[in-house]
Write a structure and sequence with these properties.
The complex is a heterodimer.
Chain A (H helix, E strand, L loop, with lengths): L3 E8 L8 E8 L6 H10 L27 E4 L2 E4 L12 E4 L6 E3 L2 E2 L2 H9 L21 H8 L9 H4 L12 H13 L7 H7 L14 H5 L6 H20 L3
Chain B lengths: L5 E4 L3 H12 L4 E5 L15 E2 L11 H11 L6 H20 L14 E2 L9 E2 L5 H18 L3 E5 L1 E8 L5 E8 L5 E5 L2 E4 L20 H8 L4 E2 L4 E8 L6 E2 L3 H4 L3 E5 L16 E2 L1 H5 L9 H14 L10 E4 L5 H19 L8 E10 L2 E2 L27 E3 L17 H21 L11 H19 L6 H15 L6 H17 L14 H25 L25 H17 L1 E8 L2 E8 L15
Parallel strand pairs in B: 1-2, 1-10, 2-6, 10-19
Antiparallel strand pairs in B: 3-5, 4-5, 7-8, 8-9, 11-18, 11-20, 12-13, 12-17, 14-15, 14-16, 16-17, 20-21
Classes of the chains: A alpha+beta, B alpha+beta.
Chain lengths: ~250, ~625
């Protein structure tokens, strides 16, 4: 076993500047994950060849794979860096920013598009107001809960989009993230009242028809959300909606 | 839409609830957050949210929820807000349900309930073991609806720096830094709501997210807002020790039947699964037979501390004890605790279904926070609905909600009451801030620009100073030292010598924090500049915690000084003369110390005074006793 951890990190000073690579080496410590190692590097940002450089910039928050912030490419695979344990990775560990979103700086990217798409697809349940109406929500069977709960665990990390051949920086495709949320809301007993609005959002440009069925998304989802199930189901819903729209009902 | 505007800072559960209620009142909201609001720390809350639904045949009552919260908090919480919070909890939970939150269900299809610490009845509503994530997303979606309608404008990737006050001292806006360009701007508002969460990062490693620094609260404290009960920091008994973070293992693990134990013989290094029952020490069950493993967090944390630090029974001599789920049905724990089982397995490489987890108390929650007002209905002792006083800080026009206020949890918070207080206080503040601005004569947009420009320049000056500073100190190293100091000296057990030392050290750290070398001169997305400012403000707030602890010579809730403990006489209960003597001593101590600590900022550090606690709902007659 080596007694150091080696990193090769792709850096970029600003959205418009060119990327460059730097290598770092820190002492080995059991239990390190990529974020905890990056924290060591930023405290003393000196490259392997002894050059003092600017601290590496990345994004993180919860450190337990529930906020989605620290997603990046680790040895070419998209992952949350907080839960990527050093002991499981080949060295030098290569860190790159996600490739499908604009780089802000170093490993930090701008995933605003994912949130804009949540708006476009109206991924919410319409309620009259946030006051008590003295009545609970409709009953939901445990089986139904089992099927849908997993979709509510999406952390908006963008892993599914990173590996999607149809999703790129220059198009409008919304991708599995949005389709899964439409599935969740359209399945909800009162959420389904507005199903048509969401399906319409998925009909035009950037909609579900652009899915190429590569099925990469479901392979990388850190929460193991059955994304392809949602894509299949919502695809059928959209087809029915098209027919309904044709026949005026 | 109203011509008035309200700024909300922070987009966790509290900030989003506030935003939603203000938007519903037809008042535009500018919502500031350090990152996309959906990534806020509320997502980390796992176990659940308390509300008396009474669907488990326990004859649970709202009154019992009120009493549990008051007693659990060592009587230090003002009671009218607690009363109203508990009364409104079921309605709040029903509202979440209507938003589409995926609460776990019973076979009949209604919301399921689980046990939690410090409570004998089942009262905790939950969504698997990701309740906070689900509640956060529920409100996030509603706020997005109003964003889509143009009522809410989000400023994500912005850092709050200060409030701007008018000549009369009322808050009429803020300054904030764009975290891409690092430029400072000022924003006008008719009221400002702070919902900036906890301060766990002051302890370095905690269960909190890396952005829970307390810096925003510290900034308004330095601008004159009173900070209340800072010394009351909750140490969660079941943290998973880590180098970067102590990951939380939800209290639901105990609530669902998890057992805490250590081998009776500390030299027993056998595989835990091979250790027979008779060689195991289930110390919580032995010491607290009535509640067993579900004693409140402060009690559990001190028991673990005692077993490890005083009795020398930590696993392998380390700061660890077992939290054991291996005796429980696999499918049962999978559906009810899945999220944390995954976290534990991911980070430890061990399957908690097969081997007991190793845990130790970790810094978790700040019961203290910004002092906030409330208006009481004298006939019912409840909080008056829609009063503009509710949740207003000591700076007029500045409101606070969620973990950054100190309103509900007194000296110790009960599990699953934090999602409740964050949501409830967010909703209250949304209503009170809306009423406050509606009654205002002068609109913020008519206020002259000079005060805003003055404050903006002051803040820009702080940034320039840091960027140009050619000191020798490293912000990251200073933060590490701060965390180590606080974890060592202002922790589960405290004593005055160590606290004196901590206060001196904090002064040193403060001085050193003005001689930084950022090592990054770039003006675009400079996270070190952001961090450096946070570290400076963390050190200031740490002094509030340490000073409050130093001066409070008693034991109450999470604050424990061995030298001042009035212990319950062993084996004695109400009716025994020894118990009566104990109650006399306990009452005398309350005469002296049942008071809220109020810290005010001065150049020489915090100035501490004390304020009466409103105990009009449930008289301070019965000591906490979880045996």
């Amino acid at each position: 076993m080596t007694n150091t951890i080696r990193f090769k990190i792709k850096r970029q000073d600003s959205p418009d500047s060119s990327p460059y690579w730097q290598e770092f080496e820190i002492p080995y410590k059991a239990g390190h994950n990529v974020v905890s190692a990056l924290m060591v590097i930023r405290e003393t940002p000196v490259t392997r060849d002894g050059k003092k450089v600017k601290p590496v910039v990345w994004e993180c928050n919860c450190m337990e794979e529930v906020c989605g912030a620290c997603t990046m490419l680790i040895n070419g695979e998209v992952k949350q860096s907080c839960s990527a344990l050093i002991d499981d990775l080949d060295q030098p560990i290569v860190l790159e920013p996600m490739s499908k979103f604009p780089v802000v700086r170093d490993l930090m990217v701008d995933r605003n598009r994912m949130f804009e798409n949540l708006k476009k697809s109206k991924a919410w349940v319409d309620i009259d107001g946030s006051w008590d109406i003295h009545e609970g929500a409709p009953r939901i069977s445990q089986e139904e809960w089992d099927r849908t709960y997993i979709f509510s665990r999406c952390i908006t990390c963008g892993s599914c989009l990173e590996v999607c051949p149809q999703f790129d920086k220059d198009n409008d495709f919304m991708g599995a993230q949005i389709i899964a949320q439409v599935y969740l809301k359209n399945t909800h007993p009162t959420g389904k009242f507005k199903s048509a609005d969401r399906l319409h959002a998925l009909m035009g440009k950037g909609g579900i028809a652009e899915c190429g069925n590569a099925q990469n998304c479901v392979e990388v989802c850190p929460k193991e959300i059955p994304l392809t199930t949602a894509i299949g189901d919502v695809g059928r819903q959209v087809t029915f909606q098209v027919l309904k729209d044709w026949f005026g009902k | 839409m109203s011509e008035k505007r309200i700024i909300v800072v922070g987009g966790g559960l509290g900030g989003l609830w506030a935003t939603l209620r203000i938007a519903e009142a037809g008042i535009p909201v500018d919502l500031f957050s350090l990152f996309e609001v959906k990534r806020s720390h509320s997502a980390c809350a796992q176990g659940g949210i308390n509300a008396c639904m009474d669907t488990k045949g326990d004859r649970d009552t709202t009154w019992q929820h009120i009493v549990d919260t008051i007693k659990g908090g060592g009587y230090l919480g003002n009671q009218p807000p607690i009363k109203t919070m508990c009364e409104e909890a079921p309605g709040l939970v029903r509202t979440f349900e209507r938003m589409g939150v995926t609460f776990s269900r019973t076979a009949e299809g209604i919301m399921d309930l689980r046990h939690f610490g410090g409570v004998k009845n089942m009262r905790t509503c939950f969504a698997g073991a990701s309740t906070g994530q689900q509640l956060l997303y529920g409100v996030d979606e509603q706020v997005r609806r109003y964003e889509d309608m143009g009522v809410v404008k989000k400023y994500e990737w912005w850092e709050f720096l200060s409030v701007v006050k008018n000549d009369e001292g009322s808050c009429r806006g803020i300054t904030a830094m764009d975290l891409r360009t690092m430029k400072v701007y000022s924003f006008k508002a008719d009221a400002v709501v702070l919902a900036t969460g906890g301060l766990g990062l002051i302890y370095g490693r905690s269960t909190n997210s890396t952005n829970s620094t307390g810096a925003a609260a510290s900034r308004v404290y330095q601008q004159g807002a009173e900070f209340m009960n800072g010394e009351f920091i909750q140490f969660h008994p079941t943290g998973m020790p880590g180098d970067d973070k102590n990951r939380l293992m939800t209290e639901a693990a105990r609530g669902e039947g998890g057992r805490i134990w250590v081998p009776k013989d500390p030299k027993n290094s056998r595989d835990p699964m091979q250790i027979p029952e008779e060689d195991r020490f289930y110390f919580l069950e032995e010491w607290y037979p009535a509640f067993g493993n579900t004693v409140p967090r402060d009690v559990a944390s001190r028991a673990i501390w005692k077993v490890v630090k005083h009795m020398g029974l930590g696993l392998r001599g380390e700061d660890r004890v077992y939290l054991d789920l291996t005796h429980l049905d696999r499918h049962f724990i999978e559906t009810r605790l899945g999220a944390i089982l995954d976290i534990y397995q991911t980070f430890s490489g061990q399957d908690p279904r097969e081997v007991p987890m190793e845990i130790f108390p970790a810094t978790h929650y700040s019961m203290g926070g910004l002092w906030v007002d409330f208006e009481k209905d004298e006939t019912t002792n409840a909080m008056v609905h829609h009063s503009p006083r509710n949740h207003q800080t000591s700076i007029p026009g500045l409101f606070a909600c969620g973990e950054c206020d100190g309103a509900y949890h007194g000296a110790n918070r009960l599990g699953a009451n934090s999602l409740l207080s964050a949501s409830f206080s967010g909703r209250v503040v949304g209503e009170s801030a809306s009423i406050y601005v509606k009654g205002m004569q002068k609109k913020s947009k008519d206020i002259k620009d000079s005060a805003f420009e003055f404050e903006r320049q002051r803040q820009e000056g702080i940034n320039d100073g840091l960027m140009k500073c050619d000191g020798t100190e490293n912000a990251y190293t200073l933060h590490k030292e701060l965390g180590e100091l606080m974890t060592k000296k202002v922790s589960v057990e405290r004593n005055n010598d160590e606290l004196d030392h901590a206060l001196e050290e904090l002064k040193n750290l403060e001085e050193r924090s003005h001689h930084l070398d950022l090592g990054d001169s770039q003006t675009w997305s400079n996270t070190t500049l952001q961090y450096a400012r946070q570290v400076q403000d963390m050190i200031v707030l740490a002094q509030v915690i340490a000073k409050g602890a130093r001066l409070r010579d008693e034991c109450r809730g999470a604050h424990y000084k061995a030298g001042f403990d009035i212990a319950i006489p062993e084996g004695k209960f109400p009716g025994d003369p020894e118990w009566d003597e104990y109650v006399v001593k306990w009452k005398a101590n309350n005469e002296k110390w049942l008071k809220s600590t109020i810290a005010k900022h001065t150049e020489d550090g915090p100035e501490i005074s004390y304020r009466e606690v409103d105990t009009s709902v449930f008289p301070v007659e019965k000591p906490r006793d979880y045996r």
